[in-house]
């Protein structure tokens, strides 16, 4: 195996983690991702094949075991699974869909703790109050100068998906914001 293949399979943020009072910024490790496009008439069949209901409402997600289906548009979802490749579940589906394995392209960072929303809001204009962005909310948005997919897993835990080539920037941005938010909270 040549080095380019090894690099694509390696984690871009190996041994990176940041923690301060009230917040942690941690790479999520390996996982499988599928960019999925399908017509509304075929959503039920694909939901059954994937074992998770594809959300039909803007800015929502759905979970089942290790799998998250994140709504990105009227016919578009990002499927994340920490254990199994969603593409494998699409191989025997008899409906027209476009499922692309983007596991090599994306990576994820978890931001958790009581200051997590403030850390993300240091570079993201999305209103992250629980009333507007509740648990399960999902959005394609920006952080600093980078497009991300943001999903709220719990009241104080966020899943941040980004392209792996931008992940060092995203990690450093979030770590710096975490350091600043923690220092402000301590005053």
Distance between the amino and carboxyl termini: 52 Å
Number of separate helices: 5
User: Which bin fits the share of residues in helices?
Assistant: 10-25%
Q: What sequence of helices (H) and strands (E) makes up the elements?
A: HEEEHEEEHEEHEEEH
The main β sheet shows up as: 6 strands, antiparallel
Summarize model confidence as the mean pLDDT. Answer: 91
Please state the oligomeric state of the protein chains shown: single chain
Strand adjacency order, main sheet: 1-2-8-11-10-9
The gross shape turns out to be globular
Show the helix and strand layout:
Layout: H1 3-9, E1 18-20, E2 23-27, E3 32-38, H2 43-50, E4 61-64, E5 67-73, E6 76-81, H3 86-90, E7 97-101, E8 106-112, H4 116-121, E9 138-143, E10 146-154, E11 157-163, H5 167-186
Antiparallel strand pairs: 1-2, 2-8, 3-6, 3-7, 4-5, 5-6, 8-11, 9-10, 10-11
Please provide a written account of the structure.
The structure is a single chain. The chain is of the alpha+beta class and 187 residues long. The protein has five helices and eleven strands. It has helices spanning 3-9, 43-50, 86-90, 116-121, 167-186; strands spanning 18-20, 23-27, 32-38, 61-64, 67-73, 76-81, 97-101, 106-112, 138-143, 146-154, 157-163. Strands 1-2-8-11-10-9 form a six-stranded antiparallel β-sheet. The chain has a five-stranded antiparallel β-sheet with strand order 4-5-6-3-7. A hairpin with a 2-residue loop joins strand 1 (18-20) and strand 2 (23-27). The radius of gyration is 17 Å and the shape is globular. The model is unreliable at 1-8 (pLDDT under 50).
């Amino acid at each position: 195996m040549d080095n380019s293949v090894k690099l694509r399979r390696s984690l871009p943020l190996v041994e990176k983690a940041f923690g301060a009072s009230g917040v942690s910024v941690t790479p999520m490790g390996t996982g499988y991702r599928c960019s999925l496009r399908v017509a509304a008439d075929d959503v039920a069949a694909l939901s059954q094949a994937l074992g998770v209901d594809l959300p039909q409402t803007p800015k929502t997600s759905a979970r089942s075991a290790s799998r998250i289906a994140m709504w990105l548009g009227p016919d578009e979802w990002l499927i994340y699974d920490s254990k199994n490749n969603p593409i494998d579940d699409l191989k025997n589906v008899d409906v027209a869909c476009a499922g692309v394995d983007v596991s090599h392209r994306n990576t994820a960072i978890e931001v958790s703790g009581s200051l997590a929303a403030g850390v993300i809001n240091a570079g993201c204009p999305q209103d992250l109050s629980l009333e507007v962005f509740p648990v399960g909310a999902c959005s394609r948005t920006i952080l600093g100068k980078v497009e991300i997919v943001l999903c709220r897993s719990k009241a104080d835990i966020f899943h941040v998906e980004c392209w792996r080539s931008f992940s060092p920037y995203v990690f450093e941005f979030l770590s710096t914001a975490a350091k600043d938010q923690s220092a402000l909270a301590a005053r």
